[in-house]
Amino acid sequence: MTTTLADNLRFLRALITNPKSIGAIFPSGPALAQAIARQIDPGAGPVLEIGPGTGVVSQAILTRGVAPQDLTLLEYDEEFARHLAARFAGVHVVQGDAFELDRTLGARPPFGAIVSCLPLLNFPAAQRVAFMDGLAARLLPGAPLIQFSYGLHAPVVPPDGFSVTCTAFVVANIPPAKVWVYRKI
Ligand SMILES: C[S@@+](CC[C@H](N)C(=O)[O-])C[C@H]1O[C@@H](n2cnc3c(N)ncnc32)[C@H](O)[C@@H]1O
Prior knowledge:
seven-stranded mixed β-sheet, 7 strands
């Protein structure tokens, strides 16, 4: 699935308003979205995507076979959140701050996979580590925490008891990106 012109404009508007939290010049391309979705086992439990933006990766997750009612999208930008709710019937869209997970998500059953699309390298190392620790606590045993990044190295040193693997280097993306998977050892 390719991104529409309307989605590109929506993304550009958000980038101009809040460059640090968008952190990319275009939405992810289909090759990157698929490389992320491939890491998800659709039968393994509910899935959380953080920072879905215009919904490119969300669409790939649904195409992978995750049922809409099993997908939660957590997005900070209000216009993106409205757009996602209109675009994906049956999906849970939560508008809020992923750095305050307890407030935005509250108590929920653990997830079978978490995808983070946040531009983590734009945030201080201590904030990145706290963020990943919070996500790790919300995963089912053995479930993947998937993060893409434009940097050469994993954006966060794995939390205690976790490993990290680069599962894809997607050259056919602007800019090229790596897909990192963190798992409990
Ligand atoms: C690099 S864009 C990725 C968008 C989309 N997933 C993609 O791959 O094209 C980062 C997204 O994270 C969202 N975001 C940034 N900070 C956030 C936060 N603290 N809480 C929730 N979403 C956030 C932005 O609004 C944006 O939609």
